[in-house]
Structure formats: structure tokens, C-alpha cells
Amino acid sequence: MSVLIYTDSADGTLTKNAFEAANYGALLAKKEGKSATAIVIGEASDIDKLGAYGVTKVLHVNDAALNNFDPQRNAAIIAQAVTKENATTIIFPHDYSGKATAPMLVAKLDAGLVTGAVALPEGNTVRKAVFSGKAFADVEIKTAIKIISVLPNAVDKQIGEGSVAVENFSCEIPTTRLTVKEVKKASTELSLTEADIVVSAGRGLKGPENWGMIEELAQELGAATACSRPVADIGWRPHHEHVGQTGIAIRPNLYIAVGISGAIQHLAGVNGSKTIVVINTDPEAPFFKAADYGIVGDAFEVVPKMIAAVKKLKG
Amino acid sequence: MKIIVCISKAPDTTSKIAFTDGNSKFDENGVQFIVNPYDEWYALVRALELKEANGGSVTVLNVGDTSNDAIIRKALAIGADDAVRIDTPTQDALFVAKQIANYVKENNPDMVLLGKETIDYNGSQVGGMVAAILDMPYVSLASKLDMNGTTATIEREIEGGVEVIETSTPFVLSAAKGMAEARIPNMRGIMAARTKPLNVVAAIAADNATEIKSFSLPPAKTGCKYVDADNVEQLIDLLHNEAKAI
What we know:
The structure holds two protein chains of two kinds. In chain A, 27% of the residues lie in helices and 28% in strands. Chain A contains seven helices and 17 strands. Chain A is elongated. Chain B has a single domain, classed as Rossmann fold (3-Layer(aba) Sandwich), CATH 3.40.50.620. Helices cover 28% and strands 33% of the residues of chain B. The longest helix of chain B has 18 residues, at 37-54.
């Protein structure tokens, strides 16, 4: 019996979320005395790295024609791998690919699914984030086969020395009515959902012309940039940067919020972050209640000092 | 063009989140319910725009009991032509997906649109399940949808970029930000909604694959450590040495 992990790739390498899922799946396999097998669909040059995360075997459908994402096709392929590996649990990253593929696999296997897991299962019960991160639910899966999609930082990373056996997986590949015509990359920007550090700013910055220092701080930290909803709505920043309940929910290691008051809808999208830093002129800003570190002060004075201090630290 | 938009009931985004019955149930006391924003702002409004441009009909579909009628009327006030409620207490995502798939199969729409997830259970499950049950293409997290005859051109957000996808009807699509601009119902719409058809149909038998056992709230932050604005270097030092975040 095995735990099967769907590890997605982009641009020829596995995604950060794929490694998070592999780590989770391997820890679960260890806990339940099963083996951890990953499935990779399309080309990926760094499959060997999965060994360090505890995966012992990889089924690779190594076909460049499958590089573009199609959840219907992928679900059909994964279903065949489930049978071959006698998998009892299937793990997905809770990202763009997992969110589309996991439910399609559910319908094929008639199995129970918990999305957005934040911890390893206890028996048949999985803890997941609900109410946009404002609460957790413990959900029991009643079916023999269990499917779980995993949020970033759900479990601590355990990296070892293991190696993987890669097996070319030949399977039936269905034709679908979906064609990917084009993939437009958002320049070289770091993907917001994959970033370890996020620097975010809100209306406190007074205008889009003042974002230079936010971008500079992000660059010094190797961080992605984000913004609050009002700022995206008035067009100061692009919509894809909007984090919060109706934007993107993120769980970075470090979230730095500059000039954002911390409305409940914004907090919902970021309160899974490990460490939160808030910089605001208003000592009564609700965001300070959710923060680990705070500076009451003017962003235009504090942020340049932060940039200088980070530069000094990084030498 | 025949479009079905699935809508879900969700607590207003400003609701206080609390639980009752030994933390096994969401405390609805004092909570105002709304149409799930992703269903309303993006899926429903884009469906209405497509109908306005191409003709056809927009039906809103909800799985739930009579307590959902108020939010169904709201969707009618925004502009849907009619509504169908599959009459059953709401259960897990697979149960709901089987109800929707059964209705879709009998009514052959050109597309089924819904929001990318609900803001309460954040499952992001029902759309993919419906598509898989019906063996239709599924495009999730779509930010743009244009129709040309039976061909759909869709933009979908992926890690670090956007995918442009082409598919053909019938398909299932989950909508995310960017798809449309929210509409506020006007008085005429609200009046008209009162007399638009809301058909109640029976549910089919289906099992739950999952069950929520209990809820809990995240541990409260232990308190914010304040650093003086004149001593920013100390903050960077704490982030490096204490939080080990940079």
C-alpha cells in the first residue's frame, strides 16, 4: 500500500508546492507504515530531488505533450496510478493545479476529499482551514480511499539523504476538448503563493508613485509584493497582487504589511503567515492585534531605514 | 446560449466566526447570509454579460433548503431569468456535486459557471467534481471568458502567470477575480425578482464522503512586540535572530 503524491511542474521543474506536498505525503506514509510514491506528468528535470523529501519511487509520464496543464487528462492518469500503486491516500498541493485536479479524481474514485489541510491526518480525520483562515475544521473522510490537498507550511520540512527510483509510467492518455493556446508569464516576478517572504502595502502609501520603496525592500529580501483590496480596486496596483478574503490567500514565512489597517477580510487572507510585521502610523490599527512585530510610525521614514538595515545585514 | 450558474449561501465577510453544540456547528446567531461572492460577483455577472451579448438564458441553481430562498431572490434581482433549488439540507461537496450533475445532465446547458470556492468552507471542490461526473472539460480559477459560437477562450491564473485556454461547449468553469465587475441590483430588478420562477425540485439519493466533526479557532497571537520607529535596525535584527524569518 502506498501514499501517492501528485507533484506538479512548471517550466520543466517541479513547483515549490509540489515539494511541500511530497514532504507531507512522505511524512504520512512514514506514520502509517506505507511507501511514498510521487507521480509527475510532463517533463521535469529535478525529479531526483524528491528523494530528499522521503519519496522513494516516482512514476513519470515523461511526455512533452503533457507539459501543459489539463485537469481532466491528469485526473485520468492519476486514477491509473492509484490502481497500479494500490494507493490508499492521494496527496495534492492545494495550488492552481491541485485545486482543479483533486476534485476531478474524487468523482472518478468516489472518494472523500479534504482540501487545504494544515496538519497530518489523525486516523481518518484531517484538519483544514475554513472561513478563509479564520477557523479550522476537523473533517472525517468516510471512504476507503482518501484524497487530501495540502496548504504550504502544513508540516515542518524534513529533508534527508534519500534517493528515488524513477519509473517511466506508461498509461492510457485520454483526449479532451481542452487546449492550452498560450502561457503568459508574469515577467520574472516571484509568484505570490510560492514566496517565502511577502511585502505588502495599502492605502497608507498615498499613491501608486510611492511603491518604489516597497519594491526595493521586496527585492532586498527576495520577497514578492502584494497589496490590499482598496489599492487594487482604485488601480494603484494590479489585481493579481490583491491578498485577502476575496483575493489570494497566502501563507508565507514572513508577511510585512505597510500602511494596511488590517480589515477582517484582509487578515483572513494572510493570517496563516508564520510571522507578521505591521508598520502603521495609527497605533489603533486592528492589524497590530494580529502582528508578531510592529512599528508605529510613518512608512516613508521606516521603510527606507528597513532597506538600509537589510542591506547591512546581508552585507 | 443556455447558462447555469451555481450559487452557494455564505456568511457575510464581516461575520464573527463562532461555533455551538460543542464546537460542532457554525453559530448562525446574528449572522447575515449572502450569495457567495465568487458565485455572484464573477460567475453570475459574467453569465449575464454573455446573455446580453449573445441572447439565451441564465438559470441560477442552488442546493439547499428554504432558508436559501433569500439569497436566490438576490441572484434573480441581479438579473438571472429563473432559479432552481434542489431541496435538501446542504451536505458535503460530493453530495452537492452529484445533485448539480444530475440536474445539468437533464437540462443540457452550454456551460456551468460557479465561483472558485465558497468563503466559508473554502473547498474549491464542487466544480471539478461536476465536470468529472459529466466527463466535461473543467477550467478552474478563470479570470476571463469570451465566447465565439461554441468555442470558449478562457484565461486562467496559474503559478506566476496566465494560461490562455480554448475549449468547446459544454464545459464547467470556476470564476475568480477579474472575470467581471460586481453589479448592485436596482429597484426594478428587486421588484421583478419577486415574480421570477423559483422552481423547487427533489434531491437524488447520494452519500456523504466526508463529515465535519468539530471546529476550532486558531491560537491567538501572543501579542505584538513593538519596536521604536527610530530603531528600525532592531526590527531587522529580531526578524533575523528571533523569528529566523530573514
